[in-house]
Specification:
By secondary structure, the chain is α+β, with helices and mostly antiparallel strands. The protein has one domain. The strands form 2 sheets. A 4-stranded antiparallel beta sheet has the order 4-1-6-5, sandwiched between helices. Strands 2-3 form a two-stranded antiparallel ribbon.
Length: 216
C-alpha cells in the first residue's frame, strides 16, 4: 500500500508547458473528469467555513498525537479526489518531471511525508481563502511563462504571511503531518516558502512551471 506522499513543484520550458496538453489529449477517456458523489458538497463545505472546524482533538493518552476528526478525514479524501491519476494526467506528470531540474534548488521543490499528503497539509495550514489563491487545483498545475507571471501576485498573497498568520499556518501544518501522517520532522517552513520561490524563479527566468502530487 502506498504510504509516502509526494508533491513536486518545478520549472519547465515554456514551449513544453504550452505543448503538453495537446500532446496527451488523446489519452483522455470519457468519465475522466467525473467527480465522486459528494465532491461538490465537500468543496462548498471547505470554502464556506469548513476549514475552521476542528480537524484534530486531544488524544486518549498524553503521549499520543492529536486525533483526526471526521472533518480532517473528509478534507483528506477530498484532496485525493481533486486530482485523479487518470492516464492523461499521469502521462503529463511524468513528462513534466523529466523536464524539471534534476536537483532541488530555486527551480525545483520536492516535499515528501510519511502517510501524509503535503498539499493537503499546506491547504489546511493556509485555510480555504488563501489556498484558493494558489495556482491550479489543489496542488496540481501546468503553467506557461505568461500564466506564471499572472499567477505570481496571487501566490504571493497566499504565501507571504504576517508573523501571526505564519505561526498559525505552521502549527496547522505540523498538526496535519503528525496526526494524519507520521512525519513529525517535516519542514513546514519550507512547505510555505519553497513553492513561491519556484514560481518567482520561473517568472524571472521566463519559464513555465508545473506541480503534481503522488503516492508511492
Amino acid at each position: 500500500m502506498s504510504s509516502t506522499g509526494l508533491w513536486v513543484v518545478g520549472v519547465i520550458p515554456d514551449e513544453e508547458a504550452r505543448a503538453l496538453p495537446d500532446r496527451y489529449i488523446h489519452l483522455i477517456r470519457p468519465g475522466d473528469w467525473e467527480r465522486p458523489p459528494g465532491f461538490g458538497e465537500t468543496l462548498a463545505w471547505w470554502s464556506n467555513g469548513g476549514d475552521q472546524e476542528p480537524f484534530f482533538e486531544l488524544p486518549a493518552g498524553p503521549s499520543e498525537p492529536l486525533a483526526p476528526t471526521p472533518a480532517a478525514q473528509r478534507f483528506a479524501g477530498f484532496v485525493e479526489d481533486a486530482n485523479a491519476p487518470t492516464e492523461a494526467a499521469e502521462a503529463m506528470r511524468d513528462a513534466s518531471m523529466t523536464l524539471m531540474p534534476k536537483t532541488e534548488g530555486a527551480g525545483l521543490f520536492v516535499a515528501t511525508a510519511s502517510k501524509a499528503n503535503p498539499v493537503a497539509a499546506l491547504c489546511y495550514g493556509l485555510g480555504a481563502q488563501r489556498s484558493a489563491l494558489l495556482p491550479g487545483w489543489f496542488g496540481d498545475f501546468l503553467l506557461s511563462a505568461e500564466e506564471v507571471r499572472t499567477a505570481l501576485p496571487r501566490a504571493e498573497e497566499a504565501l507571504l504571511l504576517s508573523s501571526t498568520q505564519r505561526s498559525a499556518a505552521l502549527t496547522r501544518i505540523t498538526a496535519w503531518m503528525t496526526s494524519m501522517g507520521d512525519a513529525p520532522d517535516f519542514d513546514a517552513v519550507e512547505l510555505i516558502e519553497a513553492p513561491l520561490r519556484v514560481i518567482r524563479h520561473a517568472t524571472e527566468a521566463g519559464t513555465g512551471a508545473a506541480a503534481f502530487s503522488r503516492w508511492y
